[in-house]
């Protein structure tokens, strides 16, 4: 029989130092870091954000209310206090990394689109049509010049 080596993905493991995003509950949309794993369903999280209305107090939460992100604070000691977590959060630039990620940009765009009025959605539709027309016109021009030569 062939030797098959099964290796677990290292990308989204629940681990101490992993940054998580709340999907349910009163902290929906906020970032926190796993400080301690309580059991297979719960973790102790802390979100020392400097932004207004973005911090998460240290508490135990269900892992079903969280999505783990690819951002990790390396070498964060288990059950680290609030101050060391905040220092590591700032040192790693967690909020900046999150803001640069495609995931955060898509979430922000989705929220903007959700808040549009009917007329604003209509304006977006017209602008997209206009952009598509310009692209197709430029493509047709390139294609016709390629055919001619």
Summarize this structure briefly.
Helix content is 42%, strand content 21%. With 149 residues, it is of the alpha+beta class.
How are the secondary structure elements laid out?
Layout lengths: L17 E5 L8 E7 L4 E6 L8 E7 L3 E7 L9 H11 L1 H7 L1 H13 L3 H31 L1
Antiparallel strand pairs: 1-2, 1-5, 2-3, 3-4
Descriptive overview:
The protein is an alpha+beta fold. The chain has helices at residues 82-92, 94-100, 102-114, 118-148, and strands at residues 18-22, 31-37, 42-47, 56-62, 66-72. The protein has a five-stranded antiparallel beta sheet with strand order 4-3-2-1-5.
Q: Biggest sheet: strands, sense, closure? A: 5 strands, antiparallel
Q: Given the structure, what is the number of helices?
A: 4
Radius of gyration, whole Å? 23 Å
Looking across the biggest beta sheet, what order are the strands in?
4-3-2-1-5
Q: Mean of the pLDDT scores?
A: 90
> Percent helix among the residues?
40-55%
Topology as a string of helices (H) and strands (E): EEEEEHHHH
Which structural class do you get from the secondary structure elements? alpha+beta
Apparent shape: elongated
The tally of strands reads 5
Uncertain residue segments: none
Which oligomeric form is depicted?
A: single chain
Residue fraction in strands: 15-25%
Gap from first CA to last CA: 60 Å
């Amino acid at each position: 029989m062939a030797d098959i080596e099964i290796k677990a993905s290292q990308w989204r493991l629940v681990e101490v130092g992993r940054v998580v995003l709340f999907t349910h509950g009163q902290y929906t949309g906020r970032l926190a870091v796993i400080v301690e794993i309580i059991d297979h369903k719960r973790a102790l999280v802390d979100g020392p954000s400097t932004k207004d209305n973005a911090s998460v107090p240290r508490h135990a939460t269900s892992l079903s209310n969280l999505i783990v992100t690819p951002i990790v604070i390396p070498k964060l000691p288990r059950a680290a206090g609030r101050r060391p977590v905040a220092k590591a959060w700032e040192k790693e630039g967690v909020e900046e990394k999150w803001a640069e990620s495609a995931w955060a940009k898509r979430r922000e765009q989705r929220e903007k689109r959700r808040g549009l009025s009917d007329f604003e959605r209509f304006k977006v539709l017209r602008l997209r049509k206009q952009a598509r027309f310009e692209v197709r016109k430029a493509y047709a021009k390139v294609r016709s010049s390629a055919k001619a030569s």
